[in-house]
Design brief:
Layout (H helix, E strand, L loop, with lengths): L21 E5 L6 H8 L14 E2 L2 E2 L5 H8 L4 E4 L3 H4 L6 H13 L3 H14 L16 H14 L4 E5 L7 H15 L4 E5 L3 H7 L2 E6 L2 E7 H5 L7 H8 L62
Parallel strand pairs: 1-6, 1-7, 4-5, 5-6
Antiparallel strand pairs: 2-3, 7-8
Helix pairs in contact: 4-5, 4-6, 5-6
Bound molecules: adenosine-5'-triphosphate and nickel (II) ion.
């Protein structure tokens, strides 16, 4: 950054994602979720520095050249439902014309079939056919979201990144949208679902990664995370407990600035389990990066 400060946006993150699998990436605003997605698309800002690798098949997405990324990766091998669809849609073209272009370029659909194919693509993302001739500025946030989802599904990319694809949608549309994403993944594509909507994550994810202050602090199977025995990391537990349908108690305090991360556990300042051990950085052990994870025992014997 100007002035010489560094933002640690994504640190030491490591995970794999198999075909047919959906990984939900959750964590509060500013923890690094979208920067991670941008890295996988080769869309990091000019001043970003990267280390490590992100392999899609044999291709390292972090070091691939722009030509490869533009011609064969974005849209074709890695699809994106962007976090701000209104900013990603082409402002001077109707939704119909953008869908038709994607169908032509990515799916090889030709003229007489294009119109029906565009309507079908819109329908998959619950975008109403009556609004297809609108320009992006004429769409509500929720409609722009659905247009972006329809566009992202067209390329049949083996890896789909969906960055908060359900913002601004009502519950039934949220369910319908994530179900469609899940259906699209099927057995041979992978989905990285970035979301603040834990109910949506629970609905379709196989595994959950919880990010805090640029690091993945918990990576675990979704049924164990949302059901019994529940999250192991105190932050992940706090996220779930903050839900209105659970305890409805917020996590006290604020996350640290990513320009000045502590040397040890970044959550320690907010954690009621913290002690002197937390001055050292915890590694991700058995799915949780914590010195004092919740242990997986049932609270009380079942009747
Ligand atoms: N171009 C940039 N230059 C400097 N810092 C940036 C840039 N883009 C993002 N950041 C910083 O990187 C950190 C992670 O941002 P990111 O957008 O990945 O968060 P997020 O988890 O997606 O949040 P949200 O849930 O609000 O979308 C933030 O502190 C953000 O301010
Ligand atoms: Ni984001």
């Amino acid at each position: 950054m100007r002035g010489g400060s560094h933002v640690s946006a994504v640190t030491d993150v490591s995970f794999d994602l198999a075909a047919g699998e959906c990984l939900a990436l959750v964590g509060e605003s500013g923890c690094g979720k979208s920067v991670l997605a941008s890295a996988l698309l080769g869309l990091l800002p000019e001043n970003a520095e990267t280390a490590g690798s992100a392999l899609l098949g044999g291709l390292d997405l972090l070091t691939a050249d722009e030509r490869t990324l533009a011609r064969s990766v974005r849209g074709r091998r890695v699809g994106l439902v962007p976090q701000s669809p209104a900013a990603h849609l082409t402002p001077v073209r109707t939704v119909r014309s953008q869908l038709e272009e994607s169908l032509r370029e990515l799916a090889g659909v030709r003229k007489p079939a294009l119109r029906a194919a565009a309507e079908q693509a819109a329908e998959r993302a619950a975008f109403p056919a009556g609004h297809l001739d609108r320009y992006p500025h004429e769409l509500s946030g929720g409609l722009a979201q659905r247009a972006a989802t329809a566009l992202a599904l067209i390329g049949d990319a083996p890896l789909l990144l969906a960055d908060e694809p359900t913002t601004g949608l009502d519950r039934d549309l949220v369910d319908r949208t994530v179900d469609e994403l899940r259906r699209h993944v099927g057995d041979d594509r992978a989905l990285l679902l970035i979301t603040h909507d834990l109910a949506a994550a629970e609905r379709i994810a196989d595994r959950v990664a919880v990010m805090y202050a640029s690091r993945v602090v918990e990576l675990t199977d979704a049924p164990a995370f949302f059901g019994a025995p529940g999250p192991r990391h105190p932050y992940a537990r706090g996220l779930l407990d903050a839900l209105p349908e659970r305890e409805f108690t917020p996590i006290p305090g604020m996350p640290p600035e990513l320009t000045a991360l502590p040397a040890g556990c970044a959550f320690a300042a907010r954690c009621d389990r913290a002690d002197e051990a937390c001055a050292a950085l915890p590694g991700l052990v058995a799915g949780a990066a914590c010195h004092h994870p919740h242990v997986n025992v049932l609270e009380s014997p079942r009747a």
